[in-house]
Design brief:
The structure is a single chain. This protein is mainly beta. About 10% of the residues lie in helices and about 40% in strands. It has a single domain, classed as Pnp Oxidase, Chain A, CATH 2.30.110. The protein is built from two helices and seven strands. Strands 1, 2, 3, 4, 5, 6 and 7 form a seven-stranded antiparallel beta sheet that branches. About 5% of the residues have low confidence.
Length: about 120
């Protein structure tokens, strides 16, 4: 159901050209889940800043997920509505940035952009 579609910066020369002209309304979604490198377990993260054009997830810097995700990666991510895992929508999602978070020590902001809906 989930897979990493493309890996790293080599596949994406211009991150802006991958972004959708019409932004998907993310207000109805609470979290995202995805798989990495064929791992059978899904990773689940609360979706943050979903009212803007710059949604993100917050990830610990010493985690497997942080080390595996690269700016420019495109993954199939399931966007879950509210706090329910039963109803979700699958979107191809571009990793746009990895920025240290000032408020939460040892965490980083992973920027997301839906590129296919």
């Amino acid at each position: 159901m989930f897979k990493k579609v493309m890996i790293g910066n080599d596949n994406v020369n211009d991150l802006d050209e991958c972004k959708l002209e019409a932004k998907t309304n993310l207000n109805e979604f609470y979290s995202v889940q995805f798989h990495l490198n064929g791992n059978g377990l899904p990773y689940l993260f609360r979706l943050r800043n979903k009212t803007s054009n710059n949604p993100y997830i917050l990830v610990k810097k010493d985690s497997f997920v942080f080390n595996e995700l690269k700016v420019g990666d495109i993954l199939d991510m399931a966007y879950n509505q509210d706090e329910s895992l039963g109803s979700n929508k699958l979107f191809k999602t571009l990793i746009t940035s990895k920025i240290p978070h000032d408020r939460y020590t040892d965490h980083s902001i992973i920027g997301l952009s839906i590129i296919d809906n």
